[in-house]
Amino acid sequence: MALDVPFSRMNGLGNEILVADLRGRSDRITPAAAVALAGKAETHFDQIMAIHDPRTTGTDADIVILNADGSEAGACGNGTRCVVLYLGRQTGAQEYLLQTRRGILEARALPGGLISVDMGVPLFDWQDIPLAHAIDDTNDAPVDSGPEGAPVLSRPALASMGNPHAVFFIDRGVQTVDLARHGAEVEHHPLFPDRVNVSIAQVTGPTALTMRTFERGVGLTQACGSAACAAAVLAARTGRAGRRLTVTVPGGDLIVEWRDDGHVMMTGPAELEWDGFLDPVTGDHRRAAQESAA
Ligand SMILES: N[C@H](CCC[C@H](N)C(=O)O)C(=O)O
Fold first, then answer.
1. Phi, psi angles (nearest 5°) of residue 85
2. Helix (H, G, I), strand (E, B) or coil at 160
């Protein structure tokens, strides 16, 4: 097998992304290759964004998203901004239509370097998140983590951004809660047949929220764009904040706006680290001879 798939190591607010370019070929990155790449220090990643030839006329590319454990994700906000940066280096274009499992997303490079993605319309029905069964109120789900009778995290609000999210709103302790432990527990709670991305969030003002995320299929990450969207939308939906928020995650800030037409716009940076080539079957890789400047 050959190391013939070009890829770029990028990040979106520290969310570690490999953008792999499989256009013009019919194969895919195997789950085994993803796990192998995730296991090496140099290519350790949270998500691979695999770019394939467009499936729909008028779109620029079809994107397959893989988590570090080789599972597939329906949405990745930070990775989508990285795809725009990747394509923009080649085409110079500012606007893209990218097809994902979640649907066709409109993304745009803004003057000044930030990238904005239309993350679509959030879903709140239990079947859409999805949940194993109906519950009374997806804003107040019967899910706890921690000691019986004195849970550390209790009753999250739920949404799908094309992938499932549970957001625990807490008054303090975003930086101190043991999210590695509680996130792993909630990720596998029986209410979530497809598992769930787990966030803790504190609303710090009518236009500001600070949060951390334990990602399904990955673990703790520096940033999770779709979780930031879910938290912002759920903060507005539960009357905790307005519809345009600065969302602070460990890696930095995202701007999230839940527009009146229901679409969620997410704006933030994307950064190039270096370029290379990978084998989509084994996950072997090498860096390109000429290291790119970020
Ligand atoms: N980091 C991504 C989300 C990945 C979600 C993934 N862990 C899943 O749903 O399985 C983001 O920026 O939106």
1. -65, -45
2. strand
pLDDT at position 120, please?
97
ipTM of the complex: 0.96
pLDDT tens, residue by residue, 94-121 = 999 999 998 999 999 999 999 999 999 9
Neighbours of 246 (CB within 10 A): 16
If we measure between CA atoms, which residue out of 261, 262, 292, 258 comes closest to residue 275? Answer: 292
User: Residue 84 carries which DSSP code?
Assistant: H
Decide if 82 is catalytic. no
The string of pLDDT tens digits covering residues 242-268 is: 999 999 999 999 999 999 999 999 999
- Give the number of other CB atoms < 10 A from CB of residue 91: 10
Which ranges in 149-265 belong to alpha helices (H)? Answer: 179-187, 225-237
224 is catalytic: yes
- 10 Å Cβ neighbour count for 119? 29
The pTM of this model reads 0.95
50 vs 57: CA distance, rounded Å:
19
Q: Is the CB of 251 under 6 A from ligand 1?
A: no
CB 18 within 8 A of CB 254: no
Atom nearest to 74 CA in ligand 1: 9
